[in-house]
Amino acid sequence: MAAEIDPSCGELSQEKIQDLIQTCVRAKAQAYAPYSNFKVGAALLTKEGKVFHGCNVENSAYPLCTCAERTAIVKAVSEGHREFTAMAVATDSPDVFASPCGSCRQTMAEFGSDYTVILTKPDGSYKTLLVRDLLPHGFTDEHLRAGQSRS
Question: Known catalytic residues?
Answer without folding.
Answer: 69
